[in-house]
Amino acid sequence: MPSESPDRDVPLRWRAGVFGLVGALTLLGCGAAPVTASAPRFDTPVPASEPRAEVHLAVTLASVANCEEAFDLALYADRSVELVAWDPPQATCGPRTVTIRFLAQRTTAEKVLSAAKKAAASASAAPPSPAASSPR
Known about the structure:
- By secondary structure, the protein is α+β, with helices and mostly antiparallel strands.
- It has a domain at 50-125: Alpha-Beta Plaits, CATH 3.30.70.100.
- It has three helices and four strands; from the N terminus they run αβαββαβ.
- A four-stranded antiparallel beta sheet has the order 2-3-1-4, with helices on one face.
- A hairpin with a 7-residue loop joins strand 2 and strand 3.
- Helix 2 (67-76) packs antiparallel against helix 3 (109-119).
- The longest helix is centred in the first third of the chain and has 20 residues, at 12-31.
């Protein structure tokens, strides 16, 4: 006697119903989560009322390609750094001055100086440059 396939014991309409039910429950489960749109934390604007402070530094950048960009990116990794402005902009990696504006409630001038020392060959506090006005 030939053995019967186990699939023949379950009618086709029952199999289709089970697969349909499983599919519907899967879609319902995946679609049940509420979708909320929110800006990423790093892209959220800072209120104008939040206090800012500036630190003026004398830095010597490492002699590498794109030394200024590498310094800027290292400082901007800290989201409390708002602006890095070179006094005046130059095309060299030698000794220069820079003004860094930061969010005073989120970090301190000492932490900004520490980050600058890590990103540059050397960095120290400096008086504001007379040619430099407040960073834009």
